[in-house]
Design a protein that fits this description.
The complex is a heterodimer. Chain A contains 19 helices and no strands. By secondary structure, chain A is mainly alpha-helical. Chain A has one domain. The longest helix of chain A is centred in the N-terminal third of the chain and has 32 residues. The model of chain A has no long low-confidence stretch (mean pLDDT 92). Chain B has one domain. Chain B starts with 22 loop residues before the first helix and ends with a helix. The N terminus of chain B is likely disordered. Classes of the chains: A mainly alpha, B mainly alpha. Chains A and B meet through helix 8, helix 10, helix 11, helix 13 and helix 19 of A and helix 7, helix 8, helix 9 and helix 15 of B.
Chain lengths: 399, 457
């Protein structure tokens, strides 16, 4: 009944986000004339921040296929739509290739000639191989997103949905391995190699933990948006689903904090010259401000609030927290990536805000376009009814 | 070994409790294992073998106390050898119990019901074996309490910047919470045992332990609240204990020890080895006591999947550790990685890769996960692999540090081996005593499960 209202509102948001995206990117492109290096740095920040969301969607989607559960069926179409933006998002990487020279010191032959270590790293850190790897990451992500979407939509009309569930499961298991490896190496390449001499084996884990946080937060926001406007969806995606999703939010925020803190503690305590430099830069001259924000506002506040069941079922609070957590995702990437370009003191350029907003606008446009093209619930999956029935029993047993 | 599902109609391999059980039959069946006067021959033989190993443990400790740590192979540069390797191995094994009892409880995983009591007991005994090792390793174990921060006249205070001091708190907290959680879960069942026991001494003993449980609604309400609370407290311990153990190595400067991915990779390895141990113990135990209808093939299928997942996470740890060492280009790190692959102990490292990386690939197949013989063999292989992993980390790194002048090899003595296998004796003796004297499956939770499965129809 509310279907038309939902679609018209989605259309409006889609239009607005496209306009905002294009305007912000055009304004940001003005930065190319004034401060070219800053433009590319801000673009990289915005790109990694925005791409974190669909990457997280892809990962959580595969976890859902592997473990089932009602929460997954409720947000499956949201996750699929998010993941399906990856092929187009790949095109938005191209400006970064143009800006390699402004971002990665190892692309400069003179710098490499001066550093024995960079010469040692040349077989891995060279532009052609770097581009080849990036292309491979996007092929794997897009391929997984495409197949998972295609089969899931086929299942809606299929007479043999069980076979398709098996197929989705069978792809998701190796898919998850590929996903973890590619997100790790993408993090090493795009982020870690900005400081080509620095290394940390936890770096990739911190990135995909952050992707998961971003994915769950956006899924909560979108699921709530639809549930408010579509009764059929709201009947399925009830307060128990939001309770489960906020548990995921709690778990992933904690996991992100755990791995980030572990990396810090190990490098701080070891105090080795080859690794401590990264934190020396990031914990003084103003950079300690975002670091402290991450500890208290990025971890402690959401953690404390999400512990109570009452809060987990308080939709308004949950919406606020999800937005908050997404802001903190930005702060985290800002703190991880940007001190490299300004090691002697905190620096914030307006482009760091405009370009991420532009890319987020484009992404939201792509996301809504995907979302509108699908039925909102994957009801033909045999596990959907099983999960729904199982949950009713659970509730009955508890109350 | 007969697979229970082979006589059943298709689909029955999926159940976590074979049909036909009532509240009474479950209670009877589980408590009869303990109260039935006849002890199975398998128990006597198993306990006897465990007792022999345990005796060896006691002798090894006596020898250690008489002559000192010189009876072991530990010597500069390898000051941490078998005691620490085996300590980490044992503490890792404990993790599966906490994961099953706390995290899977919070995640409402019903299949955990029939194995959680057993796994919790395993956790406690593994922690006991683990906790004794560092104390024996002290050289002067009679002053072990100096590690505790208490006001004293000789000005001893622990060095809180050392991860070894954190370990003391991590492990003693873990032992306390595990014991409390286990005991609280046992109380209703102890009362059931009290009511079923005929012998007055048994009645008295179980009655004392049941703490006056009468099963009133108020009792149950408080019990449930406490159990949930303890589960929530135990959950972070699954991660924190092995994280602190990994810090023992990671916050140092030694190549092979200091790598940032170590904490999550240690935790995954702990759960990996713990589930392997659960499989190792449950395969013979369910057969011995005829519990195939409560611990079903489905349980092994799920545990096989968990083993595969955690094993792959451990594989991720190896991959990033190796890659980052080569990528980082530190001479010492690169050299350590080559030394692992080609040095004096390379066969151990390759054996570890075969055990932890290659063997688990069989778990992709449901046929393997539901074949209990194969699961049993794989679980032994995995536990060997996890011991070798700790050997690689602890010993190989110490033999090959920064200065070639301070390199040196390690070789274990017979007392190293006797203490290690002896600790297995301690573990098994405790476990055999547990299954003989306490209900090894949680009766009241099984009855709850029947309630839930019945309301499904």
């Amino acid at each position: 009944m509310d279907q038309t209202r939902l679609v018209s509102q989605l259309n409006r948001i889609q239009k607005i986000s496209l306009v905002v995206g294009i305007v912000a990117l055009v304004v940001g492109a003005g930065g190319l004339l004034t401060n070219r290096a800053q433009f590319f740095q801000s673009y990289l920040l915005g790109y990694i921040f925005v791409l974190s969301i669909p990457l997280g969607h892809l990962g959580i989607l595969m976890i859902h296929h592997l473990v089932g559960g009602k929460w997954g069926f409720s947000i499956r179409r949201i996750l699929e739509s998010g993941a399906m933006t990856l092929p187009v998002m790949a095109l938005l990487y191209i400006p970064i290739i143009v800006g390699y020279g402004y971002l990665y010191p190892w692309t400069d032959p003179a710098t490499v000639a001066e550093s024995h270590l960079l010469q040692y790293k040349e077989p891995w850190l060279n532009v052609p191989f770097f581009i080849v790897r990036t292309v491979i990451y996007f092929i794997i992500w897009s391929g997984l997103a495409f197949l998972l979407n295609k089969w899931s939509l086929q299942q809606d009309k299929s007479d043999d949905p069980t076979a398709i569930t098996t197929r989705l499961k069978n792809l998701s298991a190796p898919g998850m391995i590929l996903f973890i490896l590619t997100t790790t190496f993408a993090a090493y390449d795009w982020g870690m190699s900005l400081d080509p001499l620095w290394f940390s084996s936890m770096y990739g884990v911190i990135f995909f933990a952050g992707h998961a946080v971003a994915a769950v937060a956006t899924a909560i926001l979108v699921a709530n948006f639809i549930a408010k406007r579509n009764q059929k969806f709201a009947d399925r995606v009830d307060i128990y689903v939001f309770n489960d999703l906020s548990n995921f939010l709690l778990a992933f925020v904690s996991f992100w904090a755990y791995v980030s803190f572990s990396q810090y503690l190990i490098i701080w305590a070891s105090n080795l010259p080859e690794t401590i430099t990264w934190y020396v830069v990031r914990t003084q001259n103003g950079w300690q401000v975002p670091a402290t924000m991450l500890i208290f506002l990025g971890f402690a506040v959401p953690f404390a609030l999400l512990l109570s069941r009452k809060n987990k079922r308080n939709i308004k609070l949950l919406i606020g927290l999800s937005v908050w957590v997404l802001v903190m995702r930005y702060v985290d990437f800002f703190w991880i990536l940007m001190p490299t370009f300004s090691p002697y003191g905190f620096y914030f350029h307006w482009l760091n805000l405009v370009i991420p907003v532009g890319l987020a606008g484009i992404w939201l446009f792509l996301f809504i376009r995907q979302l509108k093209g699908k039925p909102l619930l994957a009801q033909n999956d045999p596990r959907f009814h099983e999960a729904a029935v199982h949950e009713l029993k659970e509730v009955a047993a508890h109350e | 070994m007969q697979l229970s599902h082979s006589q059943q109609p298709p689909g029955q391999a999926e159940v976590i409790l074979e049909p036909g059980h009532t509240y009474e039959s479950v209670g009877k069946k589980i408590s009869n294992v303990v109260l039935d006067v006849r002890t199975p021959l398998g128990w006597v033989v198993g306990f006897g073998a465990a007792a022999i190993l345990f005796t060896m443990y006691l002798i090894s400790i006596a020898v250690l106390f008489a002559w000192g740590t010189g009876v072991w192979g530990n010597n500069t540069p390898v000051a941490w050898a078998f005691p620490i390797v085996t300590f980490v191995w044992w503490i890792g094994i404990g993790h599966a119990g906490t994961l099953i009892s706390a995290i899977l409880f919070l995640l409402r995983q019903e299949w955990r019901t029939s194995i959680n009591r057993f796994a919790e007991a395993m956790t406690l005994f593994a922690v006991a074996c683990a906790g004794l090792y560092p104390i024996l390793h002290l050289g002067r174990p009679w002053v072990f309490y100096w590690i505790m921060p208490y006001p004293n006249t000789f000005g001893m205070w622990p060095q809180f910047r050392s991860a070894l001091a954190w370990d003391v708190f991590a492990i003693s907290t873990y032992a306390t919470i595990s014991a409390l959680f286990w005991f609280v879960g046992l109380i209703p069942d102890l009362a059931g045992m009290r009511d079923r026991a005929k012998h007055p001494v048994l009645k008295f003993g179980y009655g004392m332990l049941a703490m006056g449980w009468r099963g009133s609604a108020r009792h149950w309400e408080r019990h449930q609240a406490l159990y949930l609370l303890l589960a929530a407290i135990a959950t972070p311990l699954v991660v924190s204990v092995h994280t602190v153990v990994s810090f023992d190595f990671a916050i140092s400067q030694l190549p092979g020890w200091t790598t940032t991915v170590l904490p999550p990779y240690f935790v995954a390895g702990a759960v990996f080895s713990g589930f392997a141990m659960v499989v190792t113990l449950l395969v013979p135990m369910r057969k011995l006591y005829g519990l195939q209808d409560m611990i079903t093939v489905r349980h092994f299928d799920i545990m096989g999947k968990i083993l595969l997942t955690t094993g792959l996470i451990v594989g991720y740890g190896y991959t990033t550790e190796f890659f980052t060492a080569f990528y980082g280009g530190s001479v010492y790190e690169v050299d350590m990685m080559w030394y692992r692959l080609t040095g004096a102990y390379a066969p151990f490292v390759w054996a570890l890769a075969a055990c932890n990386l290659i063997s688990i690939q069989f778990l992709w197949f449901k046929k393997v996960r539901t074949n209990l013989w194969l699961m049993f063999i794989l679980s032994l292989i995995i536990n060997t692999g996890m011991w070798l992993e700790r050997f690689m980390i602890v010993v190989i790194s110490l033999t090959h540090d920064f200065l070639p002048a301070s390199w040196g090899l390690f070789s274990a003595t017979k007392w190293d081996f006797s203490l290690m296998f002896g600790s297995l004796g301690l573990f098994l003796v405790l476990l055999f005593l547990f299954v003989r004297t306490l209900p090894m499956i949680s009766v009241f939770e099984m009855q709850e499960l029947i309630h839930k499965t019945e309301s499904h129809h």
